[in-house]
Amino acid sequence: MSAVFDRARSAGPLLSRIVAAVFGGYGLAALGSVAALALPMDKTQAVITGALASFAIYAGAVVWVFAVRSARRAWAGLLIAAVPLGLAACSVWSGGAAA
Amino acid sequence: MSIGAEPHPRGIRQTMSDLHIWAGLLTGWFLYAMFLTGTVSYFKDELSQWMRPELPHQAEVPDAAGVAQRIADELQKVASGSSQWGITLPDARNNVASAFWRVPGTEGRRAFQSATFDPATGHKVSSRETAGGDFFYRFHFQFHYMPVLWGRWLAGFCAMFMLVAIVSGVITHKKIFVDFFTFRWGKGQRSWLDAHNALSVFGLPFHAMITYTGLVTLMALYMPWGSQTAFKTPAERQQLTAELSAFIQPGKPSGQKAALAPVEEMVRQAQARWGHDNINRVTITHGGDAAARVSVSRGDQGRTSVSPQYMLFEGNTGRLLETKDHVGPAAETRGVMYALHLGRFGDGVTRWLYFIVSLAGTAMVGTGLVMWTVKRRQKLPDPDRPYFGFRVVERLNIAAIAGLSIAMAGMLWANRLLPTDLPDRAAWEIHSFFIVWGLMAVHAVLRPAKRAWLEQLWLATAALALLPLVNVFTTHRPLWRSLAEGDWVFAGVDGMLWALAALHAMLAIRTARHSTKVRPARRAAPLRPTPSSAGERA
After folding, report:
1. Contact present, B447 and B425 (Cβ < 8 Å)
2. Which domain holds residue A73?
3. Most CB atoms within 10 A, among B22, B296, B355, B363?
4. Do B121 and B55 touch, CB atoms closer than 8 A?
């Protein structure tokens, strides 16, 4: 019984990392693709730039998630990276509503 | 790096190695199939020709203008009232014209029909019904027997894993340059590792490029968020589409009938601009209506990009409305990445290089998968009864690697042997591919692993080697005739089948020689504490 519990507990951080990598990574990449719209360039080109770069963000995020020492740090890193991207994306969303 | 000699806690290279192993293992079988069918697709046009033996060898490329006119005339008969016709013209590698059209009054993906046409007559081709090399091409990014979008998402998921496996694999190897020049033949696991390293490093720029650009080809599907945020109306989204694709979207028909001006003349203008044999596609919207538009798009020669370049004409007058010959910088970047993936810009030499390096990529995935079992076999507590997960990987490897070769050859056999009047013949060729593959999977489960490898590799050798003979007996185009007539497509495919058969025979011979004498685990199992495991425990 306690062995099962131990196993579940030891699998927890790994599962957390997998979720962080697959979904967190995609989320970050998607956020990045929207944030690219804040770049000072033609809107159409910005959309394409964001999509082109998003896969690099995704791959980088996955490597980060598994490179750091703990699952908590993995999530923290993703969130920190999300802040500037989120701010840029917010400016696009609010700007888009105004325009 | 010798295994177990690191007393440090798990460093970055160790965690990256784990990431590499698991990312590779979980998607490896899909990736292997994507890589191999994708590799073959560099010769998909040649394969399509081989699979339509009734169509004569095309000694020279027919004039695009004349062909476009003939196909447009034919489409007015078979697809009248359709809002959109797309015609792909023959070129040096492709001896048919193909067209798709939107079926009036329908929506969505099922709304399209397509057919292949004889460039000389403009009528539907009188050859056996086959998907040709296009099946492998489509399979490599959308699989089969599932909705196209699911397949593309699955392919994208696997490609993303591939990208992660490449990055983590590079980080794992600090001695990537030295490793490349290290090869330890006949040393079991070491040789597999060295082979995997050599194959990976040799083609590393290519593998990274092909994976990333593969994701880029379908980026509108995978990353639609930017475009959804930026563009709210269909008209706005149209701006984006125009930067990505030469297909003009049908507008509103006027409802007034008006004959189409000669398409031939429009294509001539495009030929004058881009070169006589450098016309790729003709798209006609609302042919027969007063609002008809015709776009003639540039071929792949002379540029490493697929970004849209076309001339747009008013359909019923033939007046040039617009010449689109450049797109924005980001769109051009995307066009170049897409073109790098397809490799259509290149001549024969480039194409062969693509094929060879891509084959090395396939082998990279294959050796990686095999290494997973080789490495773990030595640590099995009881080599005669491996644990379940090991058996699953071992058997899937056999079916996914050796079995796939047999299945692909099987499809070519079906192409030659299925009766030409069989209903849904093209679909049955594809079913044959999967039936053979399924049988190989069953075989891999039922037989002892090493026997299964050997039997399937020899079967693949036989299936490939006999195909040119099957061709002799089922068509009028045996190898000697192809050679005598200078038909390098047929001779090339026949020769390639023999080369691939030889490759499989070599693999079979090496597998047979390879001693699977597993180090008696009884000796190792009780005394496992190696320096590293002792270190972990301490």
Report:
1. no
2. 2-98
3. B296
4. no
Of A33, A44, A63, the CB nearest to B225: A33
pLDDT score of A52 more than 80:
yes
Residue B241: count of CB within 10 angstroms of its CB: 17
Instruction: Determine which of B227, B245, B333, B340 to mutate to test the interface with A (most A C-beta atoms within 10 Å).
Output: B227
| Residue with token string 């500037």 | A84
* Beta carbons of A58 and B160 less than 8 Å apart: yes
Nearest-by-CA chain A residue for B9 = A69
For residue A34, the chain B residue with the least C-alpha distance is: B226
Domain count, chain A: 1
Please state the domain extents for chain B: 10-52+133-232+347-352+359-374, 64-129+244-342, 378-523
The span from the CA of B57 to the CA of B369, in Å, is 41
pTM to 2 decimal places: 0.89
Residue pointed to by tokens 């519990």: A5
pLDDT averaged over 10-residue windows placed end to end, chain B, 538 residues: 44 88 94 97 94 88 92 90 90 90 74 88 88 95 94 96 94 70 69 81 90 96 93 86 84 86 94 91 91 92 90 93 92 95 87 94 94 88 86 95 97 96 94 97 94 96 97 94 92 96 95 65 40 35
| Residue B163 sits at the chain A interface (C-beta within 8 Å) | yes
